[in-house]
Amino acid sequence: MKSASCAALLCLLCSSAFAGDKPNIVYIICDDLGYGDVQCLAPATSKIPTPNADRLASEGMIFTDAHSGSSVCSPTRYGIMTGRYSWRTWLQKGVVTGFAPSLIEAKRPTVAGFLKTQGYATAAIGKWHLNFEYLDPKTGEQYTQKEHQTPPIGAKIPDGPVNRGFDYYHGFHHARNMEAVIENDRVIGHDDEINMLPRLTKKSVEYIESRAGNDQPFFLYLPLGSPHTPIVPSPDWQGKSGLGSYGDFVMQTDNVVGEVSAALAKHGFTDNTLVIFTSDNGCSKAADIKGLAAKGHLVSAHLRGSKADIWDGGHRIPFIVRWPGKVRPGSTSKQLICLTDLFATASEIVGADFPATSCEDSVSFLPALSGEPIVSTREGVIHHSFSGHFAYRTGKWKLILARGSGGWSSPNEKQVPKGAPKAQLYDLDADPGEQTNLYSAEPKIANRLLSQLTTEVTGGRSTSGSDSKNDTDKIVLWKSESSAKQSAAKPNSKAATQKKRKKSQAAN
Question: 247 and 158 in one domain?
Fold first, then answer.
């Protein structure tokens, strides 16, 4: 009893000591929201009203050169949580689908876990999409995706968000399992997909309300599942945009920003809260990109490509920051940042070193918030596409180790004409739309960027720090060349079938 009382007293003292001036942090990340979907970022080509994001920008700062860690969902989320590129793990392309151990190893520090050590309350409300297992609560047996497309109510989750640094979690794993509603470490119910965004909005507001009157700072991670498929705007939002369901869903997503901002204001949190509004990658082709363009709305604005692609439309994303008294209202930053940078930024904000075994690819953008240059030991930012193609960006130059989009847009690798250069090099100052390939014309620049990319990929980190290494030795820089060699080495399907048949006959 005495030891329990001492422990409780210690927790109270720690909480009081950490309260200080540390800001609350609210991190809103949309799912598949394109750079051109937000009006204040592309006023000439965005036709979808986004008044709440626009207001946030007018009260804070727009970053015009912010990038996700990947052009698809899971890898970006891993980078946000760990400050490390996801291709340093076994995940070399695509996304995870659940019913499997967490992509974040138990020993790997997360930004949520770090902030907890600094006295923060931590909550995640929304889409996790980093894998977790579902266990039978009675037997402990693991449910399989083949047998349970939707995890049963009551299923236990041993390695979810509450095991990766969060005090509280409410949400779902990913779009294909959106019907399974999860709270903390259990599946608590099943619900229609159309109800998920209103649910997340309500839970976020309730969480902010629960912090009222509490001096302990909080970190609210709000990974929305919208406007990703299924594109299901609520009845109140249907027809609002005049641009179809996707436009309506973007407007409803923007409304979350308004609801969260109102809750912060109502309970007196606004002045001491850092709000970040962003997206995990570019807009998906499921939005009917061509149809929207015909109506004058360009989901990627002036950028080439969209979700899954290695071109900037795949990974340059909206990034708006409001922090009253710290960020000048209506300001803009052109500095290059990545979503992996949250961890290092949080570390600098609270004035505590992040763990040595973390943040291999994270740089603090805190100086940029006051208009100062970012101090970085990272030479550039590494981009990664859905199919695993690499690109490297430093200054105005971007080197792409692919002949095409590296993703879903045309031309992909198979569609590029024969004789085209094996890589792409763009001067983004002169050519932000990535139309003029300078790879053959600027070999010295291309080789310099390739050398730096190779060093940062193989070295286990892109920043200075303690020695680190990748979790796998199967990282392929020149994916197109590797794929071509593998295809050439494989026998054609007819010959392979005949060989297999002969072997079978011989065995019998």
Answer: yes
